[in-house]
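Researcher: We're reviewing a set of sequences before deciding which ones to prioritize for further study. For each one, I'd like a predicted 3D structure that I can look through quickly. This is Alpha/beta hydrolase. If possible, include the structure in token form so it fits the rest of the review sheet.
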Amino acid sequence: MANQSGIPSTNRRQLLVAGAGAAGAAIAAMAAPAVALAATSASGNAHASNSSNPQHGERHTMNTVTTKDGTRIFFKDWGSGKPVVFSHGWPLDADAWDPQMLFLVQKGYRVIAHDRRGHGRSDQPSHGNDMDTYADDLAAVINALDLKGAMLVGHSTGGGEIAHYIGRHGTSRVAKVVLIGAVPPIMVKTESNPNGLPMSVFDGIRAGVASNRSQFYKDLAVPFFGFNRPNAKVSQGTIDEFWREGMLGSVLGQYECIKQFSEVDYTADLKKIDVPTLVLHGDDDQIVPIDQAGRLSAKIVKNATLKVYPGAPHGMCTTEADKVNADLLEFLQS
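Model: Here's the predicted structure for Alpha/beta hydrolase, in token form for your review sheet.
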């Protein structure tokens, strides 16, 4: 759980650092420049100063927004210029966007990414772990920072989150949308979605999280990044980072989130997107198959552009970071 400054509690941090051992110290040393960059950005920009937004019921501190129900949402806010807002996938947090945020902030853009409630450094309440609240939490961040003309980028569950944000809050603050390996329109098999995945798939995910999520996340990272494919270049560091982000979140929040990325129907939300939209999806996505997701979303959203990444896995923002970054930059500049 984050304290008022947005930093995870001492006990939880100590547990993670202890588990990381000597490798954690090395990672911390390498991360120092990025931390310094974030701190410099926060202290140097007027938009990072303490403020509040009583009109919307949120309170804004340096790196958290407190929502109407008292939940503190952690976010990173770097740079200046046109804002790009990122929504992460399950069971990760804002750090999953590091390759994109570092690239775009160096290109002169303002980049913002939050940790979904129950994930990462945000609070871990036993309530509100549903897509309506996730979308409203995103609205709380966007409103507190008074963002205008933002490009929203969502990966996996985050794609559902930004679609539902638009469904509930419209596009008055949004200029463009990017869906990457995103879960819309709906993942589970139903009468109206006969080509969806059977409920047994998601029951299996629930069982894995409930019984031994630590091992489950280590196992899940392999197909997530396509490391189980022939001739794949396996990165243990990437697997470890997936595990680290997953274990930082709340087992309750992550468990309840499974229903949100699998059973929520985002079709009506997609129909409300009235801004330029780019859909990026790997055709070897083993987690969110392209035929049940990206291809359908691109048909539902008005004037959406679909770009297929041949052979790319679900975790393409990491494995195909250079290509994704280039596509995001091109779309921003178009």
